[in-house]
Amino acid sequence: MADKDRFLEEEESPAQGDEAEVGKRVGLFPSLLLKILKWVAIVIAFILLTVLVTVLMWRALVGNSTAISNVPAAPEDIIAAPMNLIYFKNVGQIRGQTSDVPPASFIASIELGYDAGNNSLTAEINEKASLIHNRVLIYLSKKSWSELHPKNAEKLQNELEREINRLLRTGKIQQVIFDELQAIGS
Asked: pTM for the complete prediction?
């Protein structure tokens, strides 16, 4: 009798399996299609999210900035510039925050123009490069975001020239040039 029960169970099992198999075959195409559509939707969502984050970061970092960077000099500036100057370029990049509430960030790089024949001034500027960097940082940190706008660059250069000359004893610089000036934020 046990053999008979086992035989009946085996006959019932395939019948249940056939129904399940038929259900799988009928549902196979739609479930495959749904899986494909699900992955396509995930990939599209990922691409959209990546583009959105990139655009937002770009606007946050660059969208609100004003910049002077490698701006060619006007013809009158070239004529007025003394030709016998050498330029000290090792002040370094200056990064800080403005006096605004909330503060904006700024980045600046300068070159100092001085008389080519003054070797003692060359040595002094090299020795005081860190002090010059600090003086420029403090000076620019006292300015507001609007004061660091490119339209004020010439005024800032003249004021920085006076500030830096207060540090020097063996001679005076004759020109300050911005390689870079950016006020970011606000």
From this structure: 0.57
